[in-house]
Design a protein that fits this description.
Blueprint: H1 9-13, E1 23-27, E2 30-36, E3 40-49, E4 52-61, H2 66-81, H3 86-108, H4 117-128, H5 134-147, H6 149-152, H7 162-174, H8 178-197, H9 227-238, H10 244-256, H11 260-264, E5 271-272, E6 277-280, E7 291-294, H12 297-310, H13 331-338, H14 350-361, H15 366-372, H16 380-388, H17 391-409
Length: 418
């Protein structure tokens, strides 16, 4: 088929208004429609795809000169010979450009792209976090934001492969955080299963990583249960040279044996010093039920001593920064380290094991101890009973426990808290 029938751009420039021709053919389906689009000339290419005749616009003259029109026509013919419709190819490219611009705008605004791992993960988190304790929810979202989103957050969740997840996990493993590595894998699996359930993924690629990581089993928090060593610990706490806020938190930790996150997030509005109790809202509790902590007279005295300093604020133990947050989760542990107790000897969470072990050894009823530890009861009927009962006995136990700790601190022959 004859091509390049138009001699040059000068031929086109010579066309004047009133010319009776409707088009100027360049051969092989390429031609110039005259005086269209407000007086400009428009390049067109007729081509066939799958036996169907179609027309493709290639720009307007003089913005698109003769040489450019021929190059565009050659590319369109090449696609057609390969069975690709040039019109559909152009639409796909325009859509891709528009999509990339949209994704760039979302990224600039700090918004995860629709269908990405981060977008699905945040949706999953939003649906489930209201049923979790605040501290638990905070750990999960921070884990995802720190260890997962930077690497695969913007990827479409449907396209993520097991090797992509393994690369994420290896980064965590390489810094020696084996427990966190397994937690990350668990959270990723939960997100992928949610994506499958909502039709945005076909499978959970984290399933295929079983055996790819070193085995890990939860370890018990290190603690101290020898009475003489506990007495020394309490005397060491008394000698702490930090702030009053930290010192009160340190003194209350063994006395109240609540979870570290519950202690640091205590609010004055939850505490009734006259009634001698601290009512922790269900939203803050791991078991999602309101928890009552009877306050021994020693605990009340410590809180009254702290009240002039922080009592007008939300948090009993506010953080050092002015961001309105409570003290850091590492504050009590850091204070223990400064006192000479490393992580293999004692952690803030270890005060719970200390109280549980020593109270059980001294004959306090297990139901009373477990209820005060806010451990969930697996038996539903018994759980309902325990929620309502034991409070008088728990008050008695908490005062006896505080008195016993005083005895250990004084190096006296302490009477059993039983």
């Amino acid at each position: 088929m004859a091509q390049h029938l138009i001699p040059s751009n000068a031929t086109i420039k010579a066309i004047k208004p009133g010319d009776t021709r409707k088009r100027l053919s360049d051969g092989a389906g390429l031609y110039l429609l005259l005086f269209v689009k407000g007086g400009s000339h428009g390049w067109r290419l007729d081509y066939s795809i799958a036996g169907k005749r179609k027309t493709l616009s290639l720009g307007t003259y003089p913005l698109t000169g003769l040489g450019d029109a021929r190059k565009r026509a050659d590319e369109a013919r090449r696609l057609a010979r390969q069975g690709v419709d040039p019109s559909e190819d152009r639409q796909a490219k325009r859509l891709e450009i528009a999509t990339q611009r949209q994704l760039a705008a979302l990224a600039e605004a700090g918004i995860a792209p629709p269908g990405s791992f981060e977008a699905v993960a945040r949706e999953w988190f939003g649906k489930n976090s209201p049923t979790w304790a605040e501290s638990h929810a905070d750990k999960i979202i921070r884990r995802l934001e720190r260890d997962v989103f930077p690497w695969i957050g913007s990827r479409q969740i449907r396209d993520i492969q097991p090797t992509d997840i393994l690369a994420v996990l290896r980064r965590v493993e390489q810094r020696g955080a084996l427990e966190t590595t397994h937690r990350v894998q668990q959270n990723c699996g939960q997100v992928f299963r949610y994506a499958v359930a909502t039709g945005r993924a076909d499978s959970d690629p984290s399933r295929d990583l079983r055996g790819a990581l070193p085995a890990w089993k939860p370890e018990h928090y290190p603690t101290i249960t020898d009475p003489r060593e506990v007495g020394q610990l309490l005397r060491d706490i008394d000698s702490h040279q930090g702030t009053l806020i930290t010192k009160v938190a340190l003194k209350l930790a063994p006395m109240l044996f609540v979870r570290p996150g519950e202690l640091r997030r205590a609010e004055w509005s939850e505490i009734n010093l006259d009634a001698g109790e601290w009512r922790i809202p269900a939203a803050k509790m791991k078991g999602r039920t309101m928890h009552i902590v009877p306050l021994a007279k020693q605990a009340i005295a410590l809180l009254r001593d702290l009240q002039p300093l922080t009592g007008t604020r939300r948090w009993v133990f506010p953080g050092n920064r002015t961001n309105g947050e409570p003290m850091s989760e590492n504050t009590v542990n850091a204070a223990l380290r400064r006192l000479g107790y490393d992580r293999t000897m004692l952690t803030a969470h270890g005060f719970r094991s200390m109280a549980s072990t020593m109270l059980h050894e001294r004959g306090w009823p297990s139901d009373v101890i477990e209820r005060q530890l806010s451990h969930a009861e697996r038996n539903a009927v018994k759980a309902a009973y325990n929620h309502a009962e034991h409070l008088p006995k728990r008050r008695e136990m908490m005062q006896a426990w505080a008195d016993y700790l005083d005895g250990l601190r004084a190096r006296a022959n302490a009477k059993s808290p039983g």
